[in-house]
Amino acid sequence: MSNANANAMIEVSNVVKVYKRGKTEVRALNGVSLSVPRGQFLSVMGSSGSGKSTMLNLLGALDVPTSGTLRIDGKEISRFPDDELSRFRRDRLGFIFQFFNLLPTLTAVENVILPELLAGKSRELLEPKAIALLEQFGLKGRGAHRPDELSGGEMQRVAVARALLSEPALLLADEPTGNLDSKTGSEVLRLIREATRARQLTVVMVTHDPKAAEVGDRLVRLADGNIIGDDAVQAAA
Amino acid sequence: MWSLLRFVSFRHVFQSPLRSLLTLVGVAVGVATLVGIAAINRSVMDAFRSTIDTVAGKADLTVAAETSGFSEDLLETVRATPGVLHAAGGLSVVAPVNNSPGESLYIMGVDLLDDGYFRTYEGAGETNVGKLADDLEFLNSTDRILVSERFARAKNLGVGGIIELQTHEGARPFVIHGLLKETGPLKAFGGSVGVMFFGSLQEAFGKGRTLTRIDVAIDQQVGLEAMKERLQKAVGASIEVDSPDKRGSAVTTMVRSFQLGLNLGSGVALLVGVFLVYNTVSISVVQRRREIGTLRALGATRRRIRVLFALEAAVFGLLGSLLGMPLGVLVGKAAIGSVANSVSEIYVRVNINDVKLGSSELILGLTLGVLGSVFAALRPAWIASGVQPVEALRKDAAIGAGAVEVKAWPTWVGLGLLIFAWPVAQIPPPLENFPAFGYTAIFFILMGITLLSPIVLRWLNVPFQRPGELLFGISGRLAADNFARAPVRTAVPVSALSIGVTMAVTVGAFIGSFQASADKWIEQAIPADLFVTSSARLAGTQNQPMKAEVEAELLAAGNGNIEALNPVRLMAHDVLGLRVFVISLDSSIHEKLGSTMILEGKIPTPEERAKGYVTVSENFSRRRDLKVGSTFVMKTPTGEHTYTVGTIIIDYTSDQGSVILDRSIFKEQFKTDQVDTFHVYLKDKSKLEETRNAITAKLGKQYDLYVLSNDELRQEAKKLVGGAFAITYAMETVAVALALLGIINTLLAAVLDRTREIGLLRAVGADRGHVLKLFTGEAFFIGLTGSLFGVATGGVVGFIVTNIVGVQATGWNFPYAYPWMTAVQMILIGTVSAIIAGLYPARRAARLDVVEALAYE
Ligand SMILES: Nc1ncnc2c1ncn2[C@@H]1O[C@H](COP(=O)(O)OP(=O)(O)O)[C@@H](O)[C@H]1O
Ligand SMILES: [Mg+2]
């Protein structure tokens, strides 16, 4: 294998994902291969039902493929048992979802440190870090607020902070701005872009919005479980 | 409506089969407890009634002095009374069967010829009842007995067989002279009945020439009332003349206090069952908001929605009740033994062999099961009918809506109920032995706590967070949050559990306080070293009185180590409408060696005793409002005597009351010198075992003696008190078990509500263990809170039961002691079992597929 491959953050080859619902089978991914180098910001687009979320779930170690191999950060995770997948997510990955990103009973700070708390680390060490990060993301003084006291944009910023706090290898975002108005959305996008670039983080972001997709370095298009396009994004003028 | 029910409701039932099943089981268990207890109550009552009825036969009037008896000469007086067509005298004894602890034979002593007029005796096999009146062998010997076929069969004996019975002179062999079919009076006492010629019975059991009953057939032309008056005049005031159906009312009153405890317990079980239905229907309303919205959008009226949910609950109630019926029979069968035992030990001998469900229990069970379920559904159905058609379109409609909001009115009503509970508890009872308002107050408290619990749950969020995090890490913290998030829903299992725990702590408080007081009483008032009783461990209703001569035999057997012997008689006797114990003892010994616990007045001197001054127990004085100096009348075989209360003391012999007479006066007035128990004081207490062994060796077998040390007697008293409440333990268990079903129910709903959150947690790195801890943690908080509520409420309810309800039911007022041990136990049991109940929903949550959970809306 080439040097580039060994260096890749994501190495997907021939991945098939079949969902069985009763008698009918849905091939959500139909033999997808993909390699993403470290530090790349990859956007994934496609119409509804094309397999975007399925791919993200597999990359995010939330699910395992029906066949094919899946190497993330040098680890072959497609045959990991459930507990190892959990640990892997906790230690190596960050997630941002479209909505309902935060636990409603926890404060912003607590939401940010949640993965680390799950890992059994102590609150006292984490909280200052989280407060600093939130401050950096324009949420100064909002750390003690609960999600229902935050706006949609603020909630997504908290989610970004949570995803970044543990310094993951890979950030996965499923339509992170899908629920926001365009102004707030682009602010959040800019935040993601800047924060990940500064950290040299690999990002895979699923989106519906062509403008959002342009934020990335590269754009992959999906249709019916197949990759139908894979282009570099021209740097915006 | 039916099609709605079929298409909408039943589909839902099958979609959440587990919750439906749990609810069904809950209703069934509640109904089963109710029905089983009702059946037991009736069986106990029937056992009394049938004994009274079958023994009474066809008599129009009965002249009776059941406990103390009267001279048989009175039979002639009755017969000579104008208007008496026929009269037959008899007496009865309950004889313990030798070498068969706890078993006894009810023996009627009759003149078969006379008695045949009132009661039909049918011979079985060779036995010809008609010939017995001339059967000299039967009439002239003191050991010939007819027994029921059932008894003979059970003992594997036939005609000519020998059974040993305890008499006042010790064990005596009796020859089965013939067998009787189990008809008429032989049905009494579950068939453990024997018949002897009355003269023989008097002789065999040292009854002198006394009878306890004369049955009378009257000239109807004279009329019942007139004849009653005539006879009363003829026999004198000391003997009761009444129609048979009036008899036994003292016993009925007595049993009422016993049954109330049971009824209360089964009421609690039903209440918790109702909670469970409420829980299920509420959850189902929340989860079906969208469906309800759709129905409303399609034109269903509010009323229709309400009826739909009420009908659903009614169907649950009906099915649950039907399931509960056969279960009720099992409950009854399982519990009847212990109930019969404690009734026999404390009140009157009963033999109950079987429990059958009658139509009244079936109707009661069905009615309360269905009505209770519908009642439980009222509020959720009301909420459901408030769902707007637009909610059909809301995507997040399923998420916890409705259970989150804590309304203000339940809090105010709850506070009101708590405030009113105390004054309500003070209202005097409407009926003897029926502390209705005490029970109402308890109900107020339970409901008040239930209504207040949502708001308290909400408050508990913060104090639970730290301990939660310390115990279970971040999952524990989240569990503390979740616990307080849908307080209206979570309050249901919390309240249900708290009711179960309340009941346990209440009973624990009452029993504990009672036992402590009784213990102190024995220690101080009767510090004898040994207690000698025949045929039973304790004197009271089950022992066989001994002849007075046993005293001398005991002294001799004691090998000179006996300092003093106090011959004590405990005779059940009807005084002022209560079946109290008339206790006779040697006052001088009693006062010298024990220290009577006087509440009021002073112990009568010998001179005062001769003038009719007596000692009465606290509970008797309270129940009949007697003060020092009050007078009352007792009927005795030597006529009516008036007594003056000289002193009121603490005495726990009987919950009906005690009147204490000096032995010399008792012997004179009651014409008997038999002894129920000897209090033995030793010279050298270190030789207690030696003396006990000597007594047992010499006299034990002959008199079937039980010789208890003071310690053992106290143990026995403890057991007796505990045993009377044994059945309540079963009911507590039922209440707690139902509460656990409620926990499962609630948490299953919570898992559904929070599926998306579980997905999120899992995505950011929570493993299955975290999710497991999240829900078991919530179960832990539910269990802990329910238990803590329960031990606090139980303290208050226990106080009310000990100081108000108990005082009204027994007349005893003993110092209240909080049952710390029980409280700690219940907190442990409540919490641990809640966690165990939480395991199932927690496992379901932990096994959720992450991707599906994330996609869940
Ligand atoms: N859990 C599932 N069970 C069955 N089919 C599924 C499941 N998840 C997704 N699918 C199907 O797989 C296909 C791809 O879905 P998804 O990856 O969610 O697409 P996208 O995110 O691009 O809209 C769709 O046809 C969808 O219906
Ligand atoms: Mg999608």
Key words describing this protein structure:
heterodimer; A: 237 residues; alpha/beta; Rossmann fold; 6-stranded mixed beta sheet; 4-stranded antiparallel beta sheet; 8 helices; 36% helix; 29% strand; B: 10-stranded mixed beta sheet; 10-stranded mixed beta sheet; binds adenosine-5'-diphosphate; binds magnesium ion
Provide structural commentary.
- The complex is a heterodimer of chains A (237) and B (857).
- Chain A has 237 residues and is of the alpha/beta class.
- Chain A has one domain (39-64, 80-232): Rossmann fold (3-Layer(aba) Sandwich).
- Chain A is built from eight helices and ten strands.
- In chain A, the strands form two sheets. Chain A has a six-stranded mixed sheet, sandwiched between helices. In chain A, strands 2-1-4-5 form a four-stranded antiparallel sheet.
- In chain A, helix 4 (108-118) packs parallel to helix 6.
- The termini of chain A are far apart.
- The model of chain A has no long low-confidence stretch (mean pLDDT 89).
- Chain B has 857 residues and is an alpha+beta fold.
- Among the domains of chain B are: 1-54 and 264-397, no CATH class; 61-242, no CATH class; 545-703, no CATH class.
- Chain B is built from 29 helices and 22 strands.
- In chain B, strands 1, 3, 4, 5, 6, 7, 8, 9, 11 and 12 form a ten-stranded mixed sheet that branches. In chain B, strands 13, 14, 15, 16, 17, 18, 19, 20, 21 and 22 form a ten-stranded mixed sheet that branches. A two-stranded antiparallel sheet of chain B has the order 2-10.
- The longest helix of chain B has 45 residues, at 302-346.
- Classes of the chains: A alpha/beta (237), B alpha+beta (857).
- Chains A and B meet through helix 3 and helix 4 of A and helix 16, helix 26, helix 27 and helix 29 of B.
Write the layout of secondary structure elements.
The complex is a heterodimer of chains A (237) and B (857).
Chain A (H helix, E strand, L loop, with lengths): L2 H5 E14 L2 E14 L3 E6 L5 H8 L7 E6 L2 E2 L5 H11 E4 L11 H11 L4 H14 L15 H14 L4 E5 L7 H18 L2 E5 L3 H4 L4 E6 L2 E7 L5
Parallel strand pairs in A: 3-8, 3-9, 6-7, 7-8
Antiparallel strand pairs in A: 1-2, 1-4, 4-5, 9-10
Helix pairs in contact in A: 4-5, 4-6, 5-6, 6-7
Chain B lengths: L1 H14 L1 H40 L4 E4 L5 E2 L2 H7 L3 E13 L7 E7 L1 H4 L7 E2 L4 H4 L3 H5 L3 E5 H7 L6 E6 L2 E11 L12 E5 H7 L5 E2 L1 E6 L5 H12 L4 E3 L6 H39 L1 H9 L4 H45 L12 H27 L22 H19 L9 H37 L1 H10 L3 H39 L4 E5 L15 H8 L4 E14 L2 E8 L1 H7 L4 E4 L4 H5 L2 E5 H6 L7 E6 L2 E11 L8 E5 H8 L6 E6 L5 H16 L1 E5 H15 L1 H28 L1 H9 L4 H43 L9 H27 L3 H6 L2
Parallel strand pairs in B: 4-9, 6-8, 15-20, 17-19
Antiparallel strand pairs in B: 1-11, 1-12, 2-10, 3-4, 3-11, 5-8, 6-9, 7-8, 13-21, 13-22, 14-15, 14-21, 16-19, 17-20, 18-19
Helix pairs in contact in B: 2-10, 2-12, 2-13, 2-25, 10-11, 10-12, 10-13, 10-17, 10-25, 12-13, 14-15, 15-16, 15-17, 15-27, 16-27, 17-24, 17-25, 17-27, 17-28, 25-28, 27-28
Adenosine-5'-diphosphate binds next to strand 1, strand 2 and helix 2 of chain A.
